[in-house]
Amino acid sequence: MSLRREIESLEKEANELIKNADSIESLSSIKVKFLGKKGKLKSILKSLGKLSPEERKEIGQLANKVKEEIENLLRKKEQFFREKAIQEELKKDRVDITLPPSWIEVGSAHPVVSTLVEISQLFISMGFSVAEGPEVEKEEYNFDMLNIPKDHPARDMQDTFFLNNGMVLRTHTSPVQIRTMLKQKPPIAVIAPGRVYRKDADPTHSPMFHQIEGLLVDENITFRDLKGTLKIFLEGIFGKDIGIRFRPSYFPFTEPSAEVDISCTVCGGTGCRVCKDTGWLEILGCGMVDPNVFEAVGIDPEKYTGFAFGLGIERIAMLKYKINDIRLLFENDMRFNHQFKGIR
Amino acid sequence: MKVPYSWIKEFVNIDAPVEEVVKKLNETGIEAVSYTFGKKIENTTIVKILSVKKHPEKDRLFLCEVTDGVRKYQVITAAHNVFKGAKVALAKEGAKIGEIVIKPVKFGSFVSEGMFLSLEEMGVVEKAEGVFIFPEEVKEGEDPNRLLGLGEEQIIEIEITPNRGDALSVRGLSREIAAIFGLKRKEKLPVVSIAQEEVPEIKFLTDKVYRYRGIVIKGVSIKPSPFDIQLKLIKSGQNPINNVVDVTNYILLQEGQPLHAFDLDKIEGDISIRLAKKGEKITTLDGEEKELTPEDIVISDDRKAVAIAGIIGGENTKVDQNTKNILLEAAVFDHISVRKTSKRLSISTESSYRFERGVDIENLPNAQDKAVELIQKTAGGKAVGEKDIYPHPYTPKKIKLREKTTIRILGFEVKKEQAKELLNRLEIPTEVVEEGTVSEIPAFRAFDLEREIDLVEEVGRLSGLNQVSETYPKIPTQSFRKSDEFLFELRTRDFFRDNGFDETVSYTFVDEDIYTILQIPVPSIKITNYLLKTQSIIRDNLVVSLLKTLQHNLRFQNKNLKIFEISSAFFDSYEEIRLGILATGSFIEGFSYTKGDKTFSTEEKWDFLKIKGVIFSYLRSLGMQDVELKEINLPYLNPYQSAEIMIDNQSVGYFGKLHPEKAAKLKIPKDTYVGELKLRYVSRELEENPLDKEGYLFNLYKKKENPVFKELPKFPSVKRDLAFEVDESLQVDKLLKTIKNSSKYVDEVRLFDVYHMGNSKKSVAVSVDFRAEDRSLSDDEVNSIVEEVVKKLQKQFKGLKLRT
Ligand SMILES: [Zn+2]
């Protein structure tokens, strides 16, 4: 057999063996067998000396080519085995991606706090600042300075919880108006979100609820400005298409006063149980700051005018989330609260 | 107040549909609704009862023979108020009452051919006792629907704001409606002549009565009122009683002037208006005995109080069947006194309701004369004497309304001529002057219209506040203050929610029993007029509420709870905004998992260090680095798993595991952790500055300085693991801090193992990074630094050994 033939059959044999190899170990024995120091190719090349220079060159080239080819095949096969091993290793750790996460699931927001924050931020972005006052309040701030004298029927508008220390649980956030105006000279643009209390309990009234008070005092503030401000607010919360109605009303600390209704968000204004078939929902009270209030806090009513408004948060939250009983809001039954994950 | 629209029409020529009237009332400041009076029932007729017999077989039933003028019927009824000669409405065969169709029914061996109707069946009242007896003048065979106006008459129901007492009458409401529609109100003046034969003696012994007019009417006969008067009362939601009493109620409704009729023969001596004596008692018309105080005004004769002024009459001088002579009172009392007495005695009457809101003192004689006229017409008798005491007659206040004020407040112009027109429509005499208008306020608006601004409101509401277009104010930039407090709370809220806690909002008032169980003092602030005793204590911490929430949720098998609340805790002179947290059960709810030889659980339970981790992470999020924990002894916490949180040597809160005994008493899981952080101080005194107070996270946060950038290290650190044997009682944190400060080359110290060895010893293993700022440390250098550190530690902690 000529050397060429020998090399060619060697190549064939190697090809066959590599193809059938079943592990990375068998590949290394193939490598030794064909390409090692005592391997078959080496032993063939030992007999090169017997050949003519031309033949030597030719066979030499052929041998090199075969060597490279075998090496190449070995490398490819080895790569194949490595990848297969990795795949098998990965497969062992395969995870059912649908298993529940091991997580700290985000907590739920309270719908009332959430609504309170949303409305507050709306007013903050309009340029109002947040003011605050205590919930245990002096009668003077809660009533007298707001032009609600003792023994006036207007006190009946708000059934008050009295405390053993001679103070009251504030019945509205309006005393914050007084506190703010006593501390700060106009211009004033504040809102006061917080808890308020009235002696009242049924599916639509809770002895504790939340309000946001708004107050803007400056020169040249008018009732029409009040309308504009509340329009922006109500459209911001309920959408551009909401109907708004101002009804003259009475609050001791504003004059003129108005109650503001929005078109019923449940029936759209055609009449339903929620709006008692009127098509309207009472949403807030407002008015121009009464001169008596200005005088009580030492602001000149001939120089300054201002508007104030107060709105109940629960009402808005209940409309927004279609909650039908106010008491659910303060029971903290997690079957209720968990429905409000994902709201801010 | 309920008013039949037809009654209004007696005072205003108005033909607008009732819906429009109601709409306009709402638009101008009086809340109003309208509804149809009663339900029309077909196949009914007025019958006269010819005889009443007890049903021979059935207890409590009566057998009546009646006639409609054409034929006789037999009717069986359970009503006790039927009598021979009574005129009643009979529902005959085929009449439909609600879902029931009337047909002949047998009761025992007798057939009932129909059913007598009460006001309840006719849809007039919610609940009626007995059948409705029509007045004698009604003819049998007439149609009760037509007589009563069932399903026809429109009722306007209004609710006034406290300033609008003037609208609390047919007359007042008509005045308002006339003004809204630009119509003229009409009035029929009474025609009476009062002889001055028997002038009553009346004395004022207090200045709390502003006017008192007494009229003696002799020779009345008490009987039911004529039908039209009864009907108006019924439509207005009142019960007819007898002709004299009905007239007083009728005039009160029509004119807004409360009246009272005394039986003159029961009055002993003269009338005086005085303050009650301390402890004086009076039995009122409703049969209840009331104890009075010198705060109360009474009408009195020479021996006794005969009425609580402006509120209710006395039993002792009540008009009854036998009354022949009456004293008819019309008065105006001090509204504050009436209100105080009414509140204290919890008696609210049509009369007190009106006095509290102001009664038209000038209309008093007119109203009372109308009553005299009606009494003489319906009860006979003759007015024989009158006395009117009115020490300070009303003088109208003049109020100027400047055009510029109107525009300054409302933002739109109301010309003075227009203002005059609007105010005159309200029957407020008004003249144009240079700056605007001047009005003379009539007595019926004296309580409400006292200042210029009150007139601005009047012209505003009549011009239509709803119609005017809006403008947008320029919110003044110089009023702007950063709302840091608000944002701080938001940020706290976000942190805890993002870390898995559910937000709760609970009542500020709590039950005393939780304090007893936790063995902590009951807070001092309490509601005196609470709705429920269990909601009467104003809480001084949030944990009491969080524990209640846990109890509530355990009822629904919810054992894993992570909740927080941000709200106030209350103290004698201030309030604190606090954060309260509660955690129990699983930190991470999970499941166990096995594959091959690997088993693990994804569930993690809460423990002390996890709660500490949440709190510290929150504090870190605020930039608080140096937080220390101190042991704390709270009766409701486990003393070995609880801590006070200190920042800058100020206590800002605490947390820990609930005391097992308290947990057992509360029937809640043992592994319940609670904590509170004091966020902010809220002052009740204006002068106090909350930012001056110590121990509040917000204040510490505000004072915190910004981090200052340090150059990044240029040379690598060398890491060594060291294990120390120390006394079991040594706090690990103390050891770590000491190591950290033991050499300038110690860069970082990390704990990786704590091993309790027994013999009151433990092994604490740490990994320490050594680093020099100016070079790489060699092994030898590090060895000698370690040696030095160990020496220092041994000096400070007796018995510390380096383990090798
Ligand atoms: Zn609706």
How many strand segments of chain A? 9
Distinct helical segment count of chain A = 12
Relative helix content of chain B: 25-40%
Structural shape of chain A: rod-shaped
Largest interface: A-B, 93 and 98 residues
Question: Mind summarizing the main beta sheet of chain A?
Answer: 7 strands, mixed
Which superfamily, in CATH terms, is the homologous superfamily of the largest domain in chain A? Bira Bifunctional Protein, Domain 2
Any low-confidence stretches of chain A, pLDDT <50, length ≥5?
none
Which band does the percent of strand residues of chain A land in?
Answer: 15-25%
Please give the structural blueprint.
The complex is a heterodimer of chains A (344) and B (804).
Chain A: H1 3-20, H2 24-35, H3 40-46, H4 53-92, H5 111-126, E1 129-130, E2 136-137, H6 139-142, E3 168-169, H7 175-183, E4 188-197, E5 208-218, H8 223-238, E6 244-251, E7 254-263, E8 280-289, H9 291-296, E9 305-312, H10 313-321, H11 328-331, H12 334-337
Parallel strand pairs in A: 1-4
Antiparallel strand pairs in A: 2-3, 4-5, 5-9, 6-7, 7-8, 8-9
Helix pairs in contact in A: 1-4, 2-4, 5-10
Chain B: E1 2-4, H1 5-9, H2 18-28, E2 31-36, E3 44-54, E4 62-67, E5 72-77, E6 87-91, E7 96-97, E8 100-101, E9 105-107, E10 110-112, E11 115-116, E12 133-134, H3 144-148, E13 154-159, H4 170-181, E14 202-204, E15 209-220, H5 227-235, H6 243-255, E16 259-263, E17 271-275, E18 281-283, E19 289-291, E20 297-300, E21 305-308, E22 312-313, E23 326-333, H7 335-345, H8 350-357, H9 364-379, E24 380-389, E25 398-402, H10 403-410, H11 416-425, E26 430-432, E27 436-440, H12 452-463, H13 484-498, E28 502-503, E29 509-510, H14 512-518, E30 537-538, H15 543-554, E31 561-570, E32 574-584, E33 586-588, E34 592-595, E35 598-601, E36 604-605, H16 608-621, E37 627-631, E38 637-647, E39 650-658, H17 660-666, E40 672-683, H18 697-703, E41 718-727, H19 732-741, E42 746-758, E43 761-770, H20 779-796, E44 801-803
Parallel strand pairs in B: 14-17, 28-31
Antiparallel strand pairs in B: 1-13, 2-13, 3-4, 3-6, 4-5, 6-11, 6-12, 7-8, 9-10, 15-23, 15-24, 16-23, 17-20, 18-19, 20-21, 21-22, 25-27, 26-27, 29-30, 31-32, 32-40, 33-36, 34-35, 37-38, 38-39, 39-40, 41-43, 41-44, 42-43
Helix pairs in contact in B: 5-6, 6-9, 7-8, 10-12
The structure holds zinc ion.
